[in-house]
Design brief:
This protein is mainly alpha-helical. The chain has 8 helices and no strands.
Length: 179
Amino acid sequence: MTSPCDPANAPVGDVGAALMVVDSRLKAIYDGGSKTDPEQQQMIDQFAASMDRAGFDALLDGACTLIYMYMSWLRAACEDHDEEVIEYVVPSLVETMRMMPKTFKPEVIPTMTGLVIAAGTGLSPNLWRAQYGGWTSAEMNPLEATVVLLAEKINRMAGDDHDFATRLITGALSGADAD
């Protein structure tokens, strides 16, 4: 029996735009600050200003697709080492979220954790979230930060290769385009 949260039923969204935002945040982190490169920030701001509701929804779906793709990669990596992906990812993710109270208010931690667990168990994060109603404005920064934290975890696992998570997605997108 298929789940209503089966990824095959989920919109992919604008993965490219979501990846651009994540990559920009990662570069800011790796450059030693919390500020994004002004040129990149201007590009993101222009992109955001040009978005209508459908574009914004596509960006949210794209962020959830990234969560799903990153958790799929992490699941495969954990299986190669006889580890459970939920056990490996969730405790450290929650611990990190608790250390970032301005980004992750206590009430959004269960939702962000739920997205990661849904993806880690093969469910669509955006369809899982949709069953509880629409996104709230309080969830926007935590959603972005969750994707960034997953990408950063992957980069660390890849030997501190700061672009590995981005290349992982661009490679998958290139492969999908070829099909």
